[in-house]
């Protein structure tokens, strides 16, 4: 495979929803250690709403898909993660625009636009113990592997997101609720970095990468 269709993006959304529902309790458990114990329910509810919206109105372009998923997350999730993931999908969609397929380079650019949106909205920096610490390494790995083709780049991104998630454990949180704990946030994996690792796991599974 050399490109993703809008149907593949919908399959990615559904797979991510499945993982958020499956791991809802574990994500909430992570958030109970350094937050307010709602990350699993926030993400499961938000992604369930996003999938229902896609089933009501099937998007025909990358931009329409990103707008649908992003707007639904922003409006249905009250926590920090709703606006942040919402911005990711909105910016991803805006990058794809009227396209109906994304090749590896276009997917890399759309993912990068999504990351830039999260950075602009949340003002987190690498190492602040947030979803950025899975997203950033995933995109760097994608870019480094893109010459090997779409599936290799997605697989590399999935592995780097998981490593980035694991690497949040010894970090002290500097953004979001976990930052209120100061040094007591050390020694716990970040919930948002964990859901972001699932986002790339879902992309790999949905595309057979
Ligand atoms: P809330 O903290 O509002 O309850 P969630 O529990 O759903 O929201 O999401 C928490 C996750 O959001 C954190 O684990 C972290 O990864 C991410 N996060 C919080 N603030 C920021 C930020 N400013 N930039 C990037 N990610 C953030
Ligand atoms: Mg929370
Ligand atoms: Mg909350």
Care to describe what's here?
With 209 residues, the protein is an all-alpha fold. The chain has one domain (3-207): Serine Threonine Protein Phosphatase 5, Tetratricopeptide repeat. Helix content is 69%, strand content 3%. The protein contains 9 helices and 2 strands, in the order βαααααβαααα. It starts with a strand and ends with a helix. The structure holds adenosine-5'-diphosphate and magnesium ion (2 copies). Residues 31, 35-36, 38-39, 79, 177 line the site of one magnesium ion. Adenosine-5'-diphosphate is lined by residues 31, 35-36, 38-39, 42, 79-81, 84, 118, 122-124, 130-132, 175-177, 190-193. GO terms for molecular function: glycerone kinase activity. Keywords: Kinase, Transferase. This is Dihydroxyacetone kinase-like protein.
Could you write a compact summary of the structure shown?
This protein is an all-alpha fold and 209 residues long. The chain has helices at residues 6-22, 24-34, 39-56, 62-76, 81-96, 104-122, 132-145, 150-166, 191-207, and strands at 3-5, 101-103.
Strand order of the largest sheet: 1-2
- The helix-strand sequence is EHHHHHEHHHH
Largest sheet: 2 strands, antiparallel
Say what the CATH topology is. Serine Threonine Protein Phosphatase 5, Tetratricopeptide repeat
How far from one another are the termini? 9 Å
Overall pLDDT level:
97
What's the domain count? 1
Domain DhaL: 7-205
Protein name: Dihydroxyacetone kinase-like protein
GO molecular function, one term: glycerone kinase activity
InterPro entries: DhaK_L_YcgS, DhaL_dom, DhaL_dom_sf, Dihydroxyacetone_Kinase
